Every structure is written in C-alpha cells, then in structure tokens.
Amino acid sequence: MSSQTSFTEDAAIVVQALNNYIQESADQGAPVIRQARLESLIEQLDLRRHLERGDLTGPALEHFIQDYLAATTRLHHPGFLAHQVAVPHTSGALASLIDGATNNAMAIYEMGPAASSIEYFMVNWMLEKIGWSGVPSDRQSDPQSEHAGGVLTHGGSLANLTALLAARSARVPTFWKSGNPGNLVVLVPEQSHYSMKRAVAILGLGEENCLTLPADADGRVLPGEMQQQIDTLRNRGKQVMAIVANACGTAAGLYDPLPEIAAICREQQIWLHVDAAHGGGALVSDKLRHLLRGIEQADSVVWDAHKMMRTPTVCAAVLVRDHRHLDHAFEQEASYLLHAKDQPGFDFISRTVECTKAALGLRLFMTVAAMGEQGLARHVEGLVERAQEAADLIRQQPGFELAIQPETNILCFRTSDNDQTQLEIRRQLLERGDFYISSTLYRGRRWLRLVFMNPATDLDDIRRLLDQIVTIRSHLEQ
After folding, report:
1. Which of 263, 383, 396, 421 is the most core-located residue (most Cβ within 10 A)?
2. The predicted structure's pLDDT at residue 133
3. 207 near 196, Cβ under 8 Å?
C-alpha cells in the first residue's frame, strides 16, 4: 500500500471516529468527563506495544482512536461548563489538520508564505476590532511609522509575557543588555490571571514586585485610589513599569473600568496592558463591545481566539498600539534567520518568543470564515445571554446564592455556607460525569463556577445540573 493511500484511508478512519465522537458528545451519549487512572490508560491504549511494533495504521489505528476518544474530556457535551476553552468549530479543526500536514513553521515568511499572509491579515482584523489600524506589509517594520502591530502566539500566558516584555523595553530600553535596574514594579488587578505574576518573575523583576491594585468589593480596579498607590511607590524609589487591567477577570468575568484607568496611565506615562484573553471576544459584537470601552487607549492587549471564538487551542494575539515597542522587545541576532534577503512578505519572528510557530492564523481564519463575522457575533452574544439566563434561574432557586450578576459567560454561585461543601459537590458531579464544572475563590469564599462555552448548552441542562446539586446537597446534610 502506498503512503498516499495509507494516509487517505487512515484519515478517513480518524475523521469518521471524530464525527461519531462529536455527535455522541452532543447527544450526551457518554459522560462529559471520565478520569481513569493514568497507569491504566497507558495500559489500555497499549502505548508501548504500538511504539515497539510501529503498527498505528488501519485496524490498529481505528482501535486506538476509539480508546483514545473514549478517555477524552468531551467539550462538545452540553455538560461541559468548566473552563475557558473553546468548543472548536470543525473548520478550525480542519485547519489544525492542514497545519499538521504541511508543517510550515511560519515565524519567517519563507517557511510559510500562505500561513504568514493569513496571520498578517487576521492580526490586522483584530487590530481593527480594537480601534487601531495596521499598514501595508512593506511598512510593517518602518521605525518612522506609529502604526499598530501584533503577532499570534501559543497561549495567553505566553502572550501576557510578550506584552510585558514590550512594556519593559519601552520603560527601560537598556534592560535587555544592561539588566534590571532593581526598582521596577508591575501593578495588576486583584482578579488577575496567575500568568501575570509568573511573567513578572520570568522577566527578572521578582515576584514580590507584582503588586495588587486597589479594588472594590467585587474585585474591579478602583481608579480613584490608583494615584495614591503610584505616589507611594515613587516615594519609595519604585518605577511602575506597567499597569494591567482585566477585560475580563478570570474568576467572575468582570471588566475593569478601562477609560478611567487609561486616563491615569496616560497622565503618569505608564504602560497600560489590557488582559482581554477571555473577554476580548466581546469586540466582535456591536451589542457587547461597550464592555471594552476605552480599550483603544491601551498600549498592549492580549486576546485569545481559543476562548470565546471557537478556535482550536491555542491561538492568542499579542497586540500593541505602536508596533515599535513589540519589534524592539527582542534585541538579538540569529544570522541564519535575520539577514538581508528578498522579502515579499513579513517575518513575525522579531515579535515573538518562538522561533518555530504553528499556523495559528489559519485556525482563526477558517473558524471565522466558516461562521462569518455575524455568526461569530451571535455565538459570543449567545454565550453571554445563556449565562445571564442561568443566573436568573439560579436566583429563583431556594438555597442558592449568586456571587454577582454575570457580565460575560462566566457565572459563580454556591449552595450552603460551607466552602468545603462546594468542593464536595463538584467532586461528586465529576464522578457522575453528566456535568463538568469548576470552582473558584472569589471575595474570600468558595464558589461553584460555570463557563458557558458550548452553544448547545441550554437552560434545561442547567435545570438538570441544579437538580443534581440539590440531591448531592441533601445527602451531604443527612
């Protein structure tokens, strides 16, 4: 059998298995989550034998893929409500297949002209959604131009690191060669993603120099109290390298007041970074983009397409208002890559940590192109609407408490006053396998947390979830 025939037949096996898997998940024909022990899964998947025999094709592949899919967490299941990960559109999944087969490592244009061109186009599409504008590719690196720029990278954590690297370069241009002046701090929201503190440590500033901004009772940043914090830090000899705002926060999905924060940053000449990894999806909706009013005043924005935009993981955008800050963030040389050459396109390598980069723009493009911009907007709006409808439903149920009315597709609630009860309810729900939800600490208390990512999840699913929670609670109280 030729390799081409083998690929065609094996691809048919995989695609058919995936089609059945997606349908079975959507029909709730299997648990949303099933956590077998790691060692038993290694044995069940027969990993060592396949490695030794090199037989993963034909019937052996069919058997393997069935066992593998049976052990996955089913994001296409309406009971998937746990995390900020997209239920991927099948066209986006096909893009991942195309990328895997072509393997164009497109950090430099010559290694992936089509992939680079699509990423360039989609980055500019995202810049326009923010309210910024790009330029033709032949001026993309022009040091005399103040246009916006960006790059797609492998996840929001790496994106936040890259954005803060640009902020560091803007604040202390000599840092790359001369090192840390020793007095830099970064101010982040109370509800900031853990990657912020990690990024500050990786950048050599020290985790203790990642400080929390003043916040109201719900966790939103209080701009009125920021100035005093900045003044106090300066009196102690500290430089505020950057201020971070959430759009939206991870725990409860709340948006910080961007216009007010931006005004202070502009007055104090401090870099403003907006972490819109999750909530940036609202920018595609005329109905919801008011949640991000003022985002165009930021210096940098992170926006994950693999969250609310149905794009397969991972696909995160690092976007800056002035391209030069990102272009100058990496002061280095690699003579085999960076040298004088014919350049009909644009090399993204100067804007990213990665030297090898997947065709992330293809995943995003094929997803949006299959849905259309209006279809994508309806999808994002639908997720938010379902969260708000679920909040109204939970509010009517005796024995349940909402943390706060959701602004996006994240909903926190609890039942009983015992934090440990929330964790035990979640544990038993996952053991049953009909629903997969998460839990978070918010305002000093433990909450059950729902993230509406699946467009198929409806209020009947939430009613069934609440019924299960009531049953578990009743047993716990006996």
Report:
1. 383
2. 87
3. no
